[in-house]
Amino acid sequence: MTGWDARIARAAQLELEYAFAAEILRFYREILLFQRDLQARGGEIDAEGLADLVRRAGPAGLAGVDVGEARRWPEAYAKGESLSPAEAFYARVFLEVGPVPGRLRTGNNACPACGHKPQVGVLRPEGHGARRSLVCHLCAAEWEFPRACCVACGETVFDKLAVYTAEQFAHVRVEACDTCKRYIKTVDLTKNGLAVPVVDELATTPLDLWARERGYLCVQPNLLAL
Ligand SMILES: [Zn+2]
Ligand SMILES: [Zn+2]
Q: Are 29 and 53 in contact (CB under 8 A)?
């Protein structure tokens, strides 16, 4: 994946703006710096390096992991094998740097490049309106997806699809489905062209709390939704 610098700068900016997410964004910025450095060094898995970072700057829930088997985790995660939350975290940090082992693509809600689930939706300006796309949670590829369609189950009945926004985050919307009770956040770049979808998704934690309280589950929890 490219675009580390844009993500790092956006995380630093939101760390100043969103006090409630400052801690998580500080840690996320450390991870991004680690990933950028790792890619510059050729992408070789550095489990000890990540373990050091986690001990220094991460939440307690990630500490104390035996990283002896860490080289196996990215492939296990990509294959859908069950991993502990901490193991999945390690796997995802390395998979985001790449390469992502492919999996069978099952529909237009799966990434066309690697077959995995989307992390976040994006609305980009097009003509007088906006076009919706999805961003892969592992390889960051982006592909077009219909606007009025549930990302999880394909529901298209208008009454079953709800969009929620909060005044505090005018450019991020929760798109929820009452058929499968899943939601995904979509970052509206027509409202805020400075947003970096993956970072803004991760930073707007109150929207996730709000959705969970109403019984919705995230289509794909982000890297730090531990
Ligand atoms: Zn992908
Ligand atoms: Zn649905």
A: no
